[in-house]
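Section handout 9: paired folding examples.
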Amino acid sequence: MKGFKDFVMRGNLVELAVAFIIAAAFTAVVKTFTDVLLALIGKVFRQPDFSRFNPGHVPVGAFLTALVAFLILAFVVYFFVVKPYEAAKARFSRVEQDAAPNEDIVLLREIRDALTRRI
């Protein structure tokens, strides 16, 4: 029972659960946004859903709808998740690099430099 308790109480399991919940909510937002954009694109072509588009009796409309939805999803994820994450990661890594090194690190560097001078 202790092993199960340790498993459930691990931090990464909680983080994963939170990520899953946020992802489900984000999916609804992106799906709605995609539907709005597809409707706007559909107004331009006078057909809100491309699934009935069959030039030469080849059903390419469903593929076009899925492709446009994928491109919208990729755009939203890249510009609203990936780019801000990379910017925050770069900013926080600079802060960590600018911090003064630990005393142990300074001592080890001094030992390394002293040994290098001897050789």
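Moving on to protein 2 of 2.
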Amino acid sequence: MLLDAPLAIVDLETTGAHPAWDRITEIAVLEAAAGEITSEWSTLVNPGTPIPPAIQALTGITDDMVARAPRFSELARALHERLAGRVFVAHNARFDYGFLRHEFERAGLSFTAKTLCTVKLSRRLYPEHARHNLDSVIRRHGIACRARHRALGDAEAVWQFLRLAAADHGDEVLAVAARQAAKSATLPAHIDRAAVDAIPEAPGVYLVYGEGGAPLYVGKSVAMRSRVLSHFADGMRSPREMQLAREARRIDWQRTAGELGALLREARLVKELAPALNRRMKRPDELCGFVLDAGKLALRRLDDADADALGCLRGLWRTRRSALEALRGLADENGLCLQALGFERTGKGACFRHQIRRCAGVCAGKESAAAHHARLAAALARLKAIAWPHRGPIGIVENDRGREETEIHVVDRWCYLGSARSDAELGELLESGRRPRFDYDQYRILSRHLAKGNARTIELAA
């Protein structure tokens, strides 16, 4: 039974809501077993940063009060031992558990525990009530709280709620509700549970919007509903997911036939919407590769070349800096002269790299330009080419097993044109006359998928 298990009822006060830069100012832990409190512990914590005035007004904890309190690192090991082996119980456990995991990690300790959120428990046991924050729970059950918004007072209120819930429903019902609550995600206050339940457990992309319809995040999964719920699960470590839970107001979704369609659509939507919390695939590309033309090596940016010019490129990098770093490595391996290639300032006589024995000496007359060029051509040939291996556009066929439908992803010269579910949609994509634009993220998705060798493709007439 729940109240017989070893519990740690925990409450924190903090300088704010974000564990990445906010810090703990007070901790309370009530240890319970066999239905009784066996230990009571609380302490102020020096956060090492000023407490905002609004937080001081709410909690009554001031900078002066924490000035001589221990830092978290000083009490981390003893607290870690105190919590070990106990079920972590808190009102809005995601907040307290997430903060503690961050603080333990900064102190060099790994912390995991089974958690029970009494907000979830209250929703399951008292579904007739609309509000389940701690103030509402205290008023509803007539709980005496000696110090609201102080860690020990709030922890005691949570313990009283557990005792009252056991008295109302019995130990067995409480235990079952606790097990169910431990498995469910706590949705943000503005997200309708029914809307999340309507998301299919199928491949696709989901879009999370914030206040005023601003796009926050675009994600993809082969099981969308489970992936969406995982963002709001207890014990989240990512500051990004904490922010997502705070700011989410609406979740939309788009089903795809399979994983490839979800990957391609995610890459496109991230570029189009520029959601605030997507880092990958959002930054503007500065794609470039090397071209060897009439004996001259040049670094060509992809915005200077359309899809037709991809076949001329050797290698492909996101930035000019990374391309030049790769060229230096290639030069070191093959004794090439960056000065002769035009990628270092031309000086008189031998280049510096020749003096440290990294250049074979074309700049010093120790080898012919023809020999240097031949070695350059051989080295470039080992870089990956981006040539399109088909005569024209192709369709990559993906079947939606759940709905017995087929989706065809249209690709031309590594450029993703779109997906079609009918002949009419397919014809529209092919006849749109839209100039293919190369996207590096889509190229990587497509090349990896086709490299597996089991993709079903069809040749399409332009």
